[in-house]
């Protein structure tokens, strides 16, 4: 059984078919990358898995069960965490608080015990902070722990968002363009982190990424999309050399290998 | 400036960041307790009113400042608190120690019920819906004459706690201490919210609903809890306001009060407990200042006392516009800057608080 399975999924925005009869499986323990030109439907696929959008046709299974009857806020407790392409952090809160929101699904107190701040809540808070400190150490976020998100540089925000998703302790991590807008050094960090997320933490990764260096370096399998349709699926080399993929990228510089960093 | 080294996870769970902070707040609390020995009975009455406004303001602050939901109708929940408190005492012979918390609970339930249909609304629509609630509540009070006294209003009996009587005119100092104690409890509860999961869920809903959902926060339910907690606190403030006013009618909690409450927390500083207190001081002291200066001008020019209708709300409105233009973080924001200035003296830079250029979504395409 695959960890995640999309079966003949189609989604339309009015007349536009953003995702057209797409099927693929993500196996436990692998890094699976979605590539394709802008507007191919990659983020839309993420938004369907997060249940922000509901496919018109097809079904999505996580651990063998359909998730289409779930609300968006049920998804993280199933074990699926995500980042957003355009960074969606809690701006008026500190890095630590942002990461702690990632622990929300592990919360065992309720608002009444919170308001009284019972000893139980105090112990829970200690445990949540301990979990979050591991993430802070892993991503080297110590210097920013108490900093407000508003005012942090773009690269740091990107890392904080990844950290917040990791704080959920998911089985499946969805990363929407984790390296876009990052410098070469920062992108290299992201590559190491993804390796560790897979090997050390045992988390399966589904990512969207334009930087083909990064994709080839970290992914086990790649699927290429264009205009909502799947073009090719397989090893990074195989997909990169696929005639249909090269055709789709013609006139676009995404496969140049220089990444998006500019 | 003080740098806090993280020695244990308790460092940011504690109520105070460091001992010096604890010292200043305890000193402030001690001064508040000893205030009746320092100032006149008249000013103690005004101080009591400041505390009551601050309680109502903290209620609204939970909703607006912490959760990012607008309410232009919070006077309605003050009314629910004030009326239910007196009704529980008079019609059900419940003592204050029971009627008071129960009145807060009643306002909280009312808030949760209102939240049920309105939390799907955003921004201006939510503001309009809550405004309608304020207007409706005024009418409802008049219609429910048999229990609310209609337009003649209700008479609030003296607060009685285990045989001890608190009256605004008879023993204002004791009433002040009672209100101070309740204020202390509300501040403590507010601080607990800020340092626990529910407070972070509020902030998550405020800053990004999409992201909150992706973190597993049930946005609709969180908004409902925010409404319930907010209205409970404001209802408690309303119940105290009822006792303080001794007689109140539907007009005691009209739309103007709803708007004043909202302006108050904006002027005081959104998103902080301090803001509710600073705002309450402005709301209570402004009429006082105006009447004092009016008398002074009248005496100086020899023209007697002049009355300009609407002067109070006019000055309040001008103050609000001034703050939104020049100090969006309110009085509390200004206070933080002054404090930092002295802490860093002489190293303060003029542009220290200029907002760092933050990343705009529109700067990047896909
Ligand atoms: N909420 C929406 N409403 C209408 N059209 C949308 C919406 N979201 C995405 N689209 C369209 O769907 C297509 C796929 O978008 P997206 O999934 O964001 O592409 P990408 O592969 O670059 O992430 C694009 O043509 C985009 O304009
Ligand atoms: Mg995208």
Q: How is this structure best described in words?
A:
The complex is a heterodimer of chains A (262) and B (366). By secondary structure, chain A is of the alpha/beta class. Chain A has a domain at 1-74 and 206-262: P-loop containing nucleotide triphosphate hydrolases (Rossmann fold, 3-Layer(aba) Sandwich), CATH 3.40.50.300. Helices cover 36% and strands 23% of the residues of chain A. Chain A has helices at 42-49, 75-78, 95-101, 111-116, 119-138, 154-167, 184-199, 212-218, 236-240, 243-249, and strands at residues 4-13, 16-26, 31-35, 57-62, 65-66, 80-82, 172-176, 204-208, 221-226, 229-234. In chain A, a hairpin with a 2-residue loop joins strand 1 (4-13) and strand 2. In chain A, helix 3 runs parallel beside helix 6 (154-167). The longest helix of chain A has 20 residues, at 119-138. The model of chain A is unreliable at 256-262 (pLDDT under 50). In chain B, 68% of the residues lie in helices and 3% in strands. Residues 355-366 of chain B have low confidence and may be disordered. In chain B, the strands form two sheets. Chain B has a two-stranded antiparallel sheet with strand order 1-4. In chain B, strands 2-3 form a two-stranded antiparallel ribbon. Chain B has helices spanning 19-34, 41-66, 74-91, 96-118, 123-143, 145-148, 172-194, 197-207, 209-214, 219-245, 255-268, 273-301, 311-326, 330-344; strands spanning 154-155, 159-161, 164-166, 247-248. The longest helix of chain B has 29 residues, at 273-301. Chain B starts with 18 loop residues before the first helix and ends in a 22-residue tail after the last helix. At the A-B interface, helix 2, helix 3, helix 4, helix 5 and helix 6 of A face helix 7, helix 8, helix 9 and helix 10 of B. Residues 42-43, 85 of chain A line the site of magnesium ion (MG).
């Amino acid at each position: 059984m695959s960890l995640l399975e999309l079966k003949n999924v189609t989604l339309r925005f009015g007349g536009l078919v953003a995702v057209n009869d797409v099927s693929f499986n993500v196996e436990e323990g692998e890094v699976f990358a979605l590539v394709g030109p802008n507007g191919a439907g990659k983020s839309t696929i993420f938004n369907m898995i997060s249940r922000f959008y509901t496919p018109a046709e097809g079904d999505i299974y996580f651990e063998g069960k359909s998730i289409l009857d779930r609300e968006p806020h049920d998804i993280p407790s199933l074990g699926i965490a995500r980042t957003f392409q355009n960074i969606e952090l809690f701006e008026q809160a500190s890095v630590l608080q942002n990461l702690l929101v990632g622990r929300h699904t592990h919360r065992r107190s309720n608002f009444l015990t919170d308001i009284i701040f019972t000893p139980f809540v105090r112990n829970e808070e200690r445990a949540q902070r301990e979990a979050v400190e591991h993430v802070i150490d892993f991503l080297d976020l110590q210097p920013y722990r108490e900093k407000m998100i508003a005012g942090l540089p773009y690269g740091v925000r990107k890392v904080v968002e990844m950290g917040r998703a990791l704080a959920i302790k998911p089985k499946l991590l969805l990363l929407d363009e984790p390296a876009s807008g990052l410098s070469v050094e920062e992108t290299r960090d992201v590559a190491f982190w993804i390796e560790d997320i897979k090997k050390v933490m045992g988390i399966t990764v589904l990512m969207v990424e334009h930087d083909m260096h990064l994709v080839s370096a970290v992914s086990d399998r790649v699927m290429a999309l264009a205009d909502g349709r799947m073009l090719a699926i397989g090893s990074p080399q195989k997909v990169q050399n696929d005639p249909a993929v090269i055709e789709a990228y013609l006139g676009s510089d995404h496969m140049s290998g220089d990444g998006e960093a500019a | 400036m003080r740098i806090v080294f993280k020695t244990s996870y308790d460092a940011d769970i504690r109520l105070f960041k460091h001992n010096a902070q604890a010292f200043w707040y305890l000193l402030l609390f001690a001064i508040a307790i000893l205030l009746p020995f320092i100032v006149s009975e008249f000013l103690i009455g005004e101080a009591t009113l400041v505390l009551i406004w601050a309680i109502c303001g903290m209620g609204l602050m939970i909703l607006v400042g912490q959760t990012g939901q607008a309410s232009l109708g919070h006077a309605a929940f003050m009314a629910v608190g004030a009326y239910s408190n007196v009704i529980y005492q008079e019609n059900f012979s419940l003592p204050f120690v029971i009627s008071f918390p129960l009145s807060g609970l009643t306002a909280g339930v009312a808030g949760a019920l209102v939240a049920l249909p309105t939390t799907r609304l955003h921004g201006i629509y939510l503001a309009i819906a809550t405004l309608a609630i304020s207007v409706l509540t005024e009418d409802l009070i008049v219609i429910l004459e048999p229990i609310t006294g209609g337009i003649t209003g209700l008479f609030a009996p003296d607060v009685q706690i285990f045989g001890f009587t608190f009256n605004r005119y008879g023993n204002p100092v004791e009433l002040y201490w009672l209100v101070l104690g309740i204020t202390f409890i509300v501040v403590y509860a507010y601080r607990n919210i800020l340092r626990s999961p529910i407070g972070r869920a509020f902030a998550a809903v405020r800053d990004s609903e999409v992201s909150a959902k992706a973190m597993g926060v049930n946005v609709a339910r969180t908004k409902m809890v925010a409404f319930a907690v907010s209205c409970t606190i404001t209802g408690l403030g309303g119940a105290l306001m009822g006792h303080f006013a001794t007689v109140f009618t539907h007009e005691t909690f009209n739309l103007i009060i709803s708007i004043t409450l909202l302006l108050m927390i904006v002027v005081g500083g959104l998103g902080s407990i301090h803001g509710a207190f600073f705002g309450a001081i402005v709301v209570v002291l402004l009429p006082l200042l105006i009447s004092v200066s009016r008398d002074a001008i009248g005496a100086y020019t020899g023209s007697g006392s002049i009355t300009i209708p609407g002067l109070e709300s006019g000055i309040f409105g001008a103050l609000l516009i001034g703050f939104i233009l020049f100090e969006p973080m309110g009085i509390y924001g200004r206070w933080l800057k002054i404090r930092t200035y002295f802490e860093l003296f002489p190293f303060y830079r003029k542009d220290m608080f200029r907002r760092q250029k933050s990343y705009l979504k529109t700067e990047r395409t896909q």
